[in-house]
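subagent[fold] <- orchestrator: predict structure for attached chain, return tokens only, no commentary.
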Amino acid sequence: MTIWYLARAAGVVAMVMFTLSAVLGMVMPRVRSAGWRFWLQYVHRSAAVTGLVLLATHVVAVIADSYVSIGLTVLVWPFGSSYRPFAMAVGALALYSLVLASLVGAARGRLAVSEKFTKVWRKLHIAASVGWLLSIGHALLAGTDRSTPWMLGITLGCLAAVATAGAYRLNALPTRVWRTQ
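subagent[fold] -> orchestrator:
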């Protein structure tokens, strides 16, 4: 039971950490103070790294748990899992997206001198949003606690936080003035 509890806890807290990272990533462009931006960026990255460590813990614990037969091959061929194959595929895609986003994020500082990379970075970093959304889907499809009030509350809270941050960011976008002549 200990491994099962570890897998559940690591998965839930990873989702919360990725939510915190997503929220901070969305609100940062509106922050004008250099000091606040520095600290928000620090917490944004720390939450993402913590989420990745917890995600790795979740994956290892799920594979190590003998209750369900999920093998290492689920990372390569998730539909081969005997336990909720579609949910495992959604989780594997979330994993791939979040790892891609972390690699791109880690490379940003080193490759920022390249103007071409700077332009491409934002497009690649969208993998973090895709991974976050897939992780929400995985939680709703695969989790053993997915229908309990506390898990639904956490999942809906994560969705609400990101939706609010997204609306806040979209509200900050400059409006275009269209000429009629």
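orchestrator: received. Logging for downstream: The chain has a mean pLDDT of 86. The helical segments are 2-27, 34-64, 85-111, 115-142, 149-172.
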